[in-house]
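Repro case for the chain-ordering regression, as requested:
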Amino acid sequence: MEKFTVYRGIVAPLDRANVDTDQIIAKQFLKSIKRTGFGEHLFFDWRYLSNGKPDPAFPLNDPRLAKASILVARNNFGCGSSREHAVWAIQQYGFHVVIASWEMRNGAKVPAFADIFRNNAMKNSLLAIELSSEEVEQIFSLARVKPGLEATVDLLRQTVTFYANHEVSFHFEVDPAEKVKLIQGLDDIGLTLKEEVAIRSFEAKHNAQKYY
Amino acid sequence: MSKTLFDKIWDAHVVKVLEDGTTILYVDRHLIHEVTSPQAFEGLRLTNRKVHRPELTFATMDHNVPTIDRLNIKDPVSKAQIDALSENCREFGIRLFDLKSENQGIVHIIGPELGITLPGLTMVCGDSHTSTHGAFGAFALGIGTSEVEHVLATQCLPQKRPKTFKVEFTGHPKSHVTAKDFVLKLIGLIGTAGGTGYVLEYCGSVIRSLSMEGRMTVCNMSIEAGARAGLVAPDEITFEYINQEARPFAPKGKNYEEALHYWKSLPSDVGAKYDRELVIDTAQIAPQVTWGTSPGMVMDVTARIPSPDQVPGYSPVDVTHALEYMGLKPGTPITDIQVDTVFIGSCTNARIEDLRIVSRVLKGKKISKRVKVLIVPGSQHVRAQAEREGLDQIFKSAGCEWRESGCSMCLGMNPDQLKPGERCASTSNRNFEGRQGKGGRTHLVSPEMAAACAVTGHFVDIREWEF
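-- result from build under test --
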């Protein structure tokens, strides 16, 4: 796993909720048996018109965002299919961070990210940051005024700072265990394999039961 | 202390709780398919790791599979992916049900069918619809490819304990209102992220009287409500389904008796606490039809297409996008919407019971001349059973195409896809933009609703339909 500490880049606003993984990477690109080559197909149906030309209305096609590396969207980002190809596509396009918004609806929290996507992102050191819908609204406003807006994400301090006419900074939450893994770039499978003794002793008891 | 069904399964599978709070959870069964596994095997090769317990992993091919002339895969990239799975299974010693196997089918259909899926197990698969297996009282969740590699290498998965959400279906549903309508209604109520972070436990008299097929349909779409897993407590209906000759991997004889004793201890204890609870009166549920590009954009068949500002849980911008994509205008009655294609299939609704219901609607009728109808059985066993019962003859006489098993038009990785602008009544699980083909317009419905739509060419209220 790659290490993540501090990162500065250009912000790409994608003002949509429920961005599903079918949309992030369409089915026709899932046939590869490799882990690479997905970036060019990111958001394919939104990026390209039916004549194959880039859709000028789609934010990522704005030349000022050509080098964007921090994606900002609304709630429930990455819903739907479990395809990890969605995370690979986002990273291989050039994004290091995805920011999405959570909100309260009828007394329940609508999370920023879908569970499987969030896990997949973590496994690949793609930082998935949850901010409130008010904060994300503010980011969209800043990006409207200043296309090509830059931001710094500091995982150690858990802050993201936007460089508009003035600096705007937000704090974000991160699971302490995940933070350590990201900062140290730990190999998840290696960590579990260290528990081999525990696994073997669990199996000895567990396998004795006929119903497992 | 009173425990929920989920608590019991979780607690029985904790290998170790690490200092940072992560639980290393043991995985009893791992299902794999051709799309999300190749990079996991590649990872094992790169790190020189072995599969920890190959006998607990089961493989099949379903996503890419053609449903006509299945052994002749014309797309070389699809074929390479299928071949890679065969090669990986051979190299790592994993049991594979390939295209020549009578056991092949959609991974979530064959697990239960072969007795791989059992109560009290933990199960994973690199596919979000793994939630299906929860219908047996197994904790089953969809995972990504890195996690597939993790499970292959360790038979464990590091997890954070999810919260629990009890969904109780009560009352007497109207006839022809089915499991699909219950779960679509639930998604409409709590939204597509309403279950995120939770395991949903479905209970209540309505769930108790559902067949295993119906329970699987409900659990299958838990992920469309954001929940990685759904659960139904096992009961006599579950045990009867499992205790059949045709389930080669289910315990038999003395082992079955021992297992049965354990399974009967699984249902949630009286007074067990859930983090969230919801009661839904099924008497109030009408047949459901999705009208937008998210499974939560769903209405009663008797309703009209909403205006952008009338949809709870979706912003006017999102609704406007969805209506534009779907080519629909506010105020249009759902029953006025005409379709070009009807797809009956997928891990949601392609089991034998689904096909029997469809055959009852189609018997002695012809499909609308305007409509193309694909009926894709969930597995080769379902296909063979349907043919033994003569259902295929009913389908063919009505003018439907009777195909071989696979995921097919649910996600269109094989040649079965919608063309831009084509509208489809589909028994599958996702109505996302482009899901069934670029520019394709999907309306999710129950098998009965889809079959009636095939005959009339537009949506009808199945409750008023005579068959």
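Ordering looks correct now. Residues 314 and 411 of chain B are 24 Å apart (CA to CA).
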